[in-house]
Amino acid sequence: AYYRRSQLTIPAIPLSEPYDLPQPLEQLSGRAELTLLVGEDGAVDTVITKESTFPPEYYNQLEVFFSKMKFQPGMVDGRPEKSRFEIEVSTTYKPEIIESRTLVEEPPRP
Fold first, then answer.
1. How far is CA 85 from CA 20, 52, 57, 70, in A?
2. DSSP characters over the chain
3. Model confidence, pTM
4. β pairing state of 30-38 and 44-52
5. Bigger pLDDT: 5 or 28?
6. What CA–CA distances, in Å, run from 41 to 12, 72, 82?
């Protein structure tokens, strides 16, 4: 069983931050709630998508991405224990307008 944060003496602490989401996710707007199951060694054993507004075909990419995180394991009375780490991911995609032109046709000259 994986301890909840409230059951730990010291919660699991990320040692690495996920910096760049997979390219397709950067071009979407969405939100996901994930649970990372962190082992006694600090590696992510499993990623569970609890809720997501991303298209289902992107769930696996999120799970693979966050499974690579490393943690200082959660502790109970000085012993490393398996624990749950809740995380929320949200992206807002705003396409950039590089250049905008308005083309106006000139009326034909007589």
1. 20, 17, 23, 12
2. -PBPGGG-SB--EESS---S--HHHHTS-EEEEEEEEE-TTSBEEEEEEEEE-S-GGGHHHHHHHHHT-BEEPEEETTEEE-EEEEEEEEE-------------PPPPP-
3. 0.78
4. antiparallel
5. 5
6. 11, 8, 8
